[in-house]
Amino acid sequence: MTKTERIGVSTTRILTFLWQYMPKSERKAYLDKYQEPFNLAKGKLPMKSAEAIIEGEDRGQLTILKDDETVDYDDNSRKYIMENENNEEILRAE
Questions:
Q1: Using 50, 70 and 90 to split pLDDT, how confident is the model at 68?
Q2: Domain definitions of the chain by residue range
Q3: Which of 45, 59, 81, 90 is the most exposed place for a label (fewest CB within 10 A)?
Q4: What is the pTM for the complete model shown?
């Protein structure tokens, strides 16, 4: 599997998990903005999208997590908490 395919699979897994927690308005906004560039219907990540993801990571606008095991939402801080298999916090994000 190429790096771009791994990015596509990881992105799809994260979005699939988070989708259930997103309000309908956010789902619609996401689809309106990103559905076309992140269209994975054919099982492949389009090169243009893969390049955008890589550029986002290079610029520090996107973090690609490795060893991410769980994603929980903290109602108090209103942030998502990503943890590894040892329950160690990897990242907090809005």
A1: low
A2: 1-62, 63-93
A3: 59
A4: 0.38
